[in-house]
Amino acid sequence: MKEKFAKLLLGEDMSGGGKGVSSALALSNAITNLAASVFGEQRKLEPMPADTKARWRKEIDWLLSVTDHIVEFVPSQQKSQDGTTMEIMTTRQRNDLLVNIPALRKLDAMLIECLDNFEGPNEFWYVSKSEKDSDNESTNRHEDKWWLPTPKVPPNGLSDEARRWLQCQKDSVNQVLKAAMAINAQVLSEMEIPDDYIESLPKNGRSSLGDSIYRSITVEFFDPEQFLSAVDLSTEHKVLDLKNRIEASIVIWTRKMTNKDGKSHWGTMGSTVSLEKRELFEERAETILLLLKQQFPGLPQSSLDISKIQYNMDVGHAILESYSRVIESLAFTVLSRIEDVLYADSVAQDPSPAETKSEQSSKVSSPLHEDDARNSAETPNAFTLSDFMGWNVAPTETTTVKKSESSNNLMDATSKVDNEKIMTKLANIVTQKKLSYLEKIENLSGLRSPTGRH
């Protein structure tokens, strides 16, 4: 423990020359590296080894213990011996840490508990790569998952009881995933935008977006459905590039509106766009950004997110961001393994269209990380941002957006989740709203907007 914290204090520079990274980034890297070493070999639906689980709990407690000493002053009442009451200031753990650290610990425990549920005999099993090559049955969902063992089920598929139980596990993991993504998105939105990122931006939003996208956003009658159908989102690289451009334009427009005096190059001098129109364009860009985050939850971190993490100096934010990100990553992994078993079951029940199913699944996953696309496209009762906002977004190759008439319908449907125990646990998880556009989806499964992180 002393050795680990000594390395953190040195900023990962063991020479002591002061060339290490900041304490915030050192802690973020420590949590990320710990999770990679513990969860990196989770290739099957099976409990974690006891020693690995004990190591994770011990070392993550060490790293999270730092947050116990990040405090703020709050007013408190104190009674003296003569009975008089006076108000004094006492210290308490910073509010965002007080709310989110227990929530993340609960999500962490729920994921490990989910893996523990697969202990003992199951109706599915795994075969190695050599056995897979000798098997003529093509039950692989994606050829690029060659390193993973292939799940197998009985010839007639899983029993109804096993299938329902597996679906229940999938639903609970999906809720954990949404909660972790919401907390991560909230923390990233609270981080300050680094000066290095701002200095790298062009002088106006049009240069950042490009003429074609800029014209689409600044038309008189803006339609998100038409915009998404016109933009090429066929690959992950193109989606990420669009996200980077939109985030950059939002930063540019926001800074121009907050520097109205024109004393800096971010001012409005020489600009032909009024503040009212610029505010409207920013709102449209934020709408598109939310739709991208909703439809493509598995995207890698954007340039803005990477820059925030790299230059962030707030230790509390660094711990929250990295801890929620590793929980999100583990949830993606577990959800993917469950989906693979359910797919093998569907092929066993109806083997004739197996090839067609595999091709369709590949089309869904090609622009994204495969696990994330399946989660977005196949999760039952998964309401989207478009449902809540009342937008009519047409289905694309990468996702299927269902329609909902009102937010009341959303809450009614959410209340019908079968696993009452899981939902009771998740009901206590609270996230704080920070940005105005995040408030638009505060009722989306009871959580806030997701963001891509890996």
UniProtKB/TrEMBL annotation:
Pfam families: PRONE. Residues 131-153, 349-376 are annotated as: Disordered. GO terms for molecular function: guanyl-nucleotide exchange factor activity. Residues 1-355 form the PRONE domain. Keywords: Guanine-nucleotide releasing factor. Residues 131-146 have a biased composition (Basic and acidic residues). PANTHER family: ROP GUANINE NUCLEOTIDE EXCHANGE FACTOR 1, ROP GUANINE NUCLEOTIDE EXCHANGE FACTOR 12. This is PRONE domain-containing protein. It comes from Kalanchoe fedtschenkoi (Lavender scallops).
